[in-house]
């Protein structure tokens, strides 16, 4: 049986058949007289059994074996043969004046067999074959008025709900905006509260300075330095001068001429914004937070310009290399990089050239007088992040050539820039020591110390270059320090190797110092003892242990000042500053 949904009906057209003679009527075959579906429905209700008429050769059930009801028949099938009508052919959909619809061949045969009393098989209204009207449409559809009203009501409710939902969405966006403003305001209030607490502590310190601090300055973190006691070894070139609380600081540098410290910090509270903090080394140790350029993320390396202390260079993981003016506390340059920056350096031979080591192993050279593009860009020998860069003096190099010393987990390399000839990098031979995790260089003596830890997985290039700001503390493992000496422009000699307790996760910092009365010294943290160890080079003889109040060690820096030298060690929330009394 054809699918009933394939047929509909609209409109009508009159089509009269020619009169047929009695002989023609006698020649037509007759079909059994079928009672209308309404009569069948009445019989069904009386007898309790379903009987449905069908055309010749078919049973009282449809092809699917289910019984038809009136709702299934109305508007879909011819009520005489129970077959779907068509829009063409003999079974064309048609209607009588009374409005009832049949297949043309069925109603024609029905009326022909009625003789002189021709009536509609559904309502028994008199009609003739001439009264049959063909309908021309693809489908017959009867719309339920009540259902249509319900549909319209539901549509109106949906429109109303959509309007209410749009209003709620708008209110939600407004509340989220207000919430963000409240959180921002809360962070600012937290900062102001922290600064007020520090000022209060400082004022209390002024009221009773001797009993509370024993002559030491107050800390940024709101606590005072107790008596050092015998745990701090003063038998050596350095003694503890100041101890400052620095919440969540990871890197620092000192401008001895201006008596200021620059630190990278991450503010506590919501958001955890990364900032730079400028702090005075002179009482009352005032400080000021400086916001980073948009998109900078965490600062990975920082250096104050050796020729101009008012400029500072910062390398960040936000693919930025930035220059800060400490006179106006604002960034004056910000270069976009192709990859996150892990290290940076000023050029020692001129204040205009700067360098950046990238996470993908590349090095970039910029001239601050040309802000459009890099001066030079070189791909690294490996894809390991360049975690340290030092600029070298060009006194032994050809004219117009500058050189830098870089370190990654793969090892140490010297790169030459400028000049007419193309030059290949010089790889320093350190032996099979493991992964290089730190590099320290002394400008005045050309002494180099490279620190190594054992390799664990050579397939993971990032395994030995963990980010400095990682929350993992790690633990001590057996590593080594290698002492190298630079001779001439590209020559290096390995002088000594010693065992060391190094961190198995983080990248430590260390410093090499050339002190007149003690020669060349190396300062590094011992992960097992929790001390800052000073060793004499090239023998690596330990000459002083400096006990630290907290672990781990994040950064170590040494600078010359008017009083001699200043060695700084940044631990967890504490910056300890040691003076070189041997030079006083």
TrEMBL record:
SMART domains: RING
Protein name: RING-type E3 ubiquitin transferase
A Gene Ontology BP annotation from the UniProt entry: protein ubiquitination
Region (Disordered): 1-28
Catalytic reactions of this protein: S-ubiquitinyl-[E2 ubiquitin-conjugating enzyme]-L-cysteine + [acceptor protein]-L-lysine = [E2 ubiquitin-conjugating enzyme]-L-cysteine + N(6)-ubiquitinyl-[acceptor protein]-L-lysine
Primary site of residence: nucleus
PANTHER family linked to this entry: E3 UBIQUITIN-PROTEIN LIGASE RFWD3, RFWD3 PROTEIN
Protein source organism: Gossypium tomentosum
Keywords linked to the UniProt accession: Coiled coil, Metal-binding, WD repeat, Zinc, Zinc-finger
Positions in coiled-coil regions: 170-199
Positions of transmembrane segments: none
Compartments, as annotated in UniProt: Nucleus, Nuclear body
InterPro entries: RFWD3, WD40/YVTN_repeat-like_dom_sf, WD40_repeat_dom_sf, WD40_RFWD3, Znf_RING, Znf_RING/FYVE/PHD
Gene3D superfamilies reported in the protein's UniProt record: YVTN repeat-like/Quinoprotein amine dehydrogenase, Zinc/RING finger domain, C3HC4 (zinc finger)
Any single GO CC term annotated in Swiss-Prot or TrEMBL for this entry: nuclear body
EC identifiers of the protein: 2.3.2.27
